[in-house]
Amino acid sequence: MLEFDIVPAERRPAEERAALLADPGFGRIFTDHMVTIRYGANKGWYDARLIPFGPLSLSPATAALHYSQEIFEGMKAYALPDGQIGLFRPEANARRLNATADRLAMPQMPEELFLRAIRTLVEADRDWVPTGEGQSLYLRPFMFATDPFLGVRPSLEYLFAVIASPSGSYFAGGAKPVTVWVSHDYSRAAPGGTGAVKAAANYAVGLLAQAQAQDAGCDQVVFLDAVEHRWIEEFGNMNVFFVYSRDGAPLLVTPPLNGSILPGVTRDSVLTLARHNGWAVQERPYSLDEWRADAQSGTLRETFACGTGVVITSIGRARTRDGEFTIGDGVEGPTTSAIRSQIVGIQRGLSEDPFGWSHRA
Ligand SMILES: *Cc1c(COP(=O)(O)O)cnc(C)c1O
Predict the structure, then answer these.
(1) What is the pTM assigned to this prediction?
(2) Which atom of ligand 1 sits closest to the CA of residue 263?
(3) What does the pLDDT average to over 34-63?
């Protein structure tokens, strides 16, 4: 078994830490340590370390900087009521990292090593797991090609690392409903491309559409399918659910995993809990036209987006090049609130966990 070399950091004083944790924002402050593990085509995984958080030294020829052979994961650690630290479905992130690695011609990482890397960092920096309402320790595992070589081929060497960032609520505005902008100009992902995996390049491709959404006064961009520009795929970097009512219970509709939609852990959790609750669910193609028509007629009750960062966020309004429409009365609906409470309750160890999703770190 690959053991971690531990090089302890000089820890920041408790007072400084408390000041930073009071209002951490998202992704801007980092804990005292990080994990790094190297991979070589001839050696496999080696040189696992827990070291002080700090700059990496890289050749300007580092392959990832030129051809984007870079992938990542996003997950959270939570302070549990008994003082322990919980991770939510971490093995799902381990599996998805490997699915992404496979698509980008990168090596597989044993799930056991991935989980140990996460736990080693969380254990070292457990004082950085914030305990305030809505707060968590965001974990960012990532892996990139380190060959100092400009030829175009899969790298022979890689660096895997995990950094951790204490975080508050993802959207500065908190849980209020957001307005989304439907992009007709740009696609996020195409059939046969990398939309179904967590490749860093997918995010670069979405930035201009996101900037246009902001210019249009919206919080997030809606990506349509790349072929017909008709079917809703994702909201920014979140999966999406449309809420109807059937026989007095919620009916949830979400686009199917068609090869260009990212299989979110939160998406899967929503589907699993909805079925567990006895709600109807449909994974089927859902068009912009259907969304608009049903919002206008009132048969569509709610729309929400989901992902590790926000967990669940309500969509109040959509703006398109042809005008805008409101979902329900523009405020968060009861199904969105209920599913959020259910997931957050499990993540934070406050409610029943019928599927054994919450793991001790
Ligand atoms: C990460 C991501 C999601 C959400 O996945 P979770 O596992 O729920 O965090 C959704 N869409 C895209 C494009 C993503 O990159």
Answers:
(1) 0.97
(2) 5
(3) 98
